[in-house]
Amino acid sequence: MANGILKVGTLTTSSGSGNITIGSGVTLNSNTPAFFINLDSDQTLTDNTVTKIQFNNVVFDTDSIYSTTNDRIVIPSGKAGKYYIQGNITVNSQGTGNLDRGVSYIYKNGSQVAWSFQDFRGNPARQTTATVTAILDLVEDDYIEIHAMGDTVNSGAALARGDTLSGNGFESWFHGCRIGA
User: Fold this and answer.
1) What is the CATH number of domain 40-180?
2) CA torsion 96→102→106→111, rounded to 10°?
3) What is the overall mean pLDDT for the chain?
4) Is the separation of the CB atoms in 146 and 104 below 8 Å?
5) Residue 147: is it exposed, middle or buried by C-beta count within 10 angstroms (0-12/13-18/19+)?
6) Fewer CB within 10 Å: C terminus or N terminus of the chain?
7) Beta strands of 22-125 (E only): which ranges?
8) pLDDT tens digits along 46-78
9) DSSP state, residue 22
10) How far is residue 7's CA from residue 29's CA, in Å, rounded to a whole number?
């Protein structure tokens, strides 16, 4: 059989019911590309300023879509579709006071498309985690970045926390996968 695209409305067994078996040597590419990248050291955030996060540790990346040079994923040829994207940033006041807010953002092609924040104005905290999630329709060459902002009470710098948990988990990460065409 020649390589090509099979387009069908329904797949059934020859009897019309039961399970379909996929032979050995067949690769199913569901939910790929998929990636998980984390920040393995702290990144300084200028107070009350949105900053692109420079994730630097690739845990896995099935299709090499993350660029540590540009700190973004780029959708490759043939992989357009709907993507589940999540960024999680632990924002710390860096011991200089307390936070009024910690915010994380998803940017698509340089523009903000989603954000999530923890607001502590009136009851400041030393550290918070802001997780932002979106399902985005992406095409070839679209790029996605994660940004963050820490707003401290005394206008001191904040930190996006790197993984300082000594192997006990991740503090700031960026992950996602293609969930459909």
Assistant:
1) 2.60.120.40
2) -80
3) 86
4) yes
5) buried
6) N
7) 34-38, 43-45, 51-52, 57-61, 66-67, 72-74, 81-92, 99-108, 111-119
8) 989 999 999 999 999 999 999 989 999 999 999
9) P
10) 16
Whole-number Å distance between alpha carbons of 29 and 100: 44
DSSP 8-state assignment for residue 75 = P
Cα three-residue angle 24-29-33, rounded to 5 degrees: 150
How many Å from the N-terminal Cα to the C-terminal Cα in the chain?
Answer: 25
**Mean pLDDT within 92-108:** 85
Comparing C-alpha atoms, which of 32, 161, 33, 35 is closest to residue 104?
Answer: 161
Tell me the DSSP string of 124-149: -BSEEEEEEEEEEEE-TT-EEEEEEE
Which pLDDT band, with edges at 50, 70 and 90, does 27 fall under? low
Work out the burial of residue 47: count CB atoms within 10 Å of its CB; fewer than 13 is exposed, 13-18 middle, 19 or more buried: buried
pTM, two decimal places: 0.82
Measure Cα distances from 62 to 54, 65, 66, 80 in Å.
Answer: 20, 8, 10, 15
